[in-house]
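Please fill in the sequence for the structure shown.

STRUCTURE ENCODING:
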């Protein structure tokens, strides 16, 4: 079996582009000379296109030089077998066409090779960036958590083990340290989730977004049944994408709407669709706290918050996660809002 594989490998190596071009050229020239001597001038003219095209397909500068040589041979053979001025003029025009075609093919081949090289270089850069991101995520998940756990653990030990030796101010300081370490842990968890979303492989399928939204809305209402929130979900909305990632998008957007309507006794949250420039745009709208449009460009950035943690809890990663997922699906996200009049988040996805 190994002998057969080695034999086939040698055949593949032997049939290199140079050999293919050489054989094609010899056969074309031989048939052309025969056609000239037999009076089949039209066949001779057409045969000379073959080696030029093949040469240009495989080589760049050498392909052009080879084409010029073939064109010169063609012209010399034409002079050798005919003295008709019209035929010679036609041959000269064909030589010019040969060289022009070779030049165009050479340029296009060179442009294609440059484009392929850029793609390879950018792919390499992307792979390098992903490796660095993996290393950073590993560092966050292992190296930084150990000292964070120590700070949290010793702070709680002081708070619980020495209550009689600490005054109220000391207890307050320790409580702030514990809260800070716990928030840092949450930020690390969210950062790792964001890193995983960027690198995860997508499984594309047709996803019923209306069903997903209804499921998420039901879960939110069950978690806080005392709240009076009306969900309005447009039926029959579907899109092509990864179901798990699109569920994260709706969980973040509907969860944000639920959170920022929390201070209103009654609230309304919508999930629907509209048309913008002939394209389908999905939207999540609420009548909650809203935001100042002056800061609309910051709202989707990681760790950027327009409200304090004391007002509304969170780490500022949810909307950044939404943007990353939507970008991976070939869409975009933007938001509109007004303070105490609610916010609307729009997003697009690739067409079905």
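FILLED IN BY: designer on duty
SEQUENCE:
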């Amino acid at each position: 079996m190994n002998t057969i594989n080695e034999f086939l490998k040698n055949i593949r190596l032997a049939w290199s582009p140079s050999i293919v071009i050489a054989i094609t050229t010899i056969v074309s020239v031989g048939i052309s000379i025969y056609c000239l001597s037999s009076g089949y001038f039209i066949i001779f003219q057409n045969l000379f296109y073959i080696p030029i095209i093949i040469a240009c397909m495989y080589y760049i500068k050498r392909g052009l030089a080879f084409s010029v040589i073939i064109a010169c041979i063609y012209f010399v053979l034409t002079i050798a077998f005919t003295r008709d001025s019209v035929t010679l003029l036609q041959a000269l025009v064909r030589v010019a066409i040969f060289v022009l075609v070779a030049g165009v093919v050479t340029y296009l081949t060179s442009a294609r090779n440059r484009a392929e090289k850029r793609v390879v270089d950018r792919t390499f850069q992307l792979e390098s960036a992903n490796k660095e991101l993996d290393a950073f995520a590993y560092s966050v998940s292992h190296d930084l958590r150990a000292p964070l756990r120590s700070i949290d653990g010793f702070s709680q030990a002081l708070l619980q083990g020495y209550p009689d030796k600490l005054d109220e101010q000391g207890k307050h300081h320790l409580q702030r340290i514990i809260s800070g370490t716990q928030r840092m842990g949450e930020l690390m968890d969210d950062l790792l989730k964001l890193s995983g979303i960027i690198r995860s492989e997508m499984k594309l399928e047709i996803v019923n977004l209306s069903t997903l939204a209804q499921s998420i809305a039901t879960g939110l209402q069950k978690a806080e049944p005392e709240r009076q929130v009306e969900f309005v979900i447009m039926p029959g909305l579907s899109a092509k994408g990864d179901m798990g990632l699109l569920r994260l998008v709706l969980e973040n957007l509907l969860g944000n709407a639920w959170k920022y309507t929390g201070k209103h006794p009654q609230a309304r949250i919508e999930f629907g669709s509209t048309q913008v420039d002939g394209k389908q745009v999905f939207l999540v709208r609420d009548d909650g706290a809203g935001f100042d449009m002056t800061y609309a460009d910051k709202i989707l950035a990681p760790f950027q918050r327009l409200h304090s943690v004391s007002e509304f809890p969170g780490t500022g990663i949810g909307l950044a996660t939404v943007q990353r997922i939507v970008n991976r699906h070939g869409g975009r996200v933007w938001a509109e809002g007004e303070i105490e009049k609610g916010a609307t988040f729009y997003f697009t996805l690739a067409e079905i």
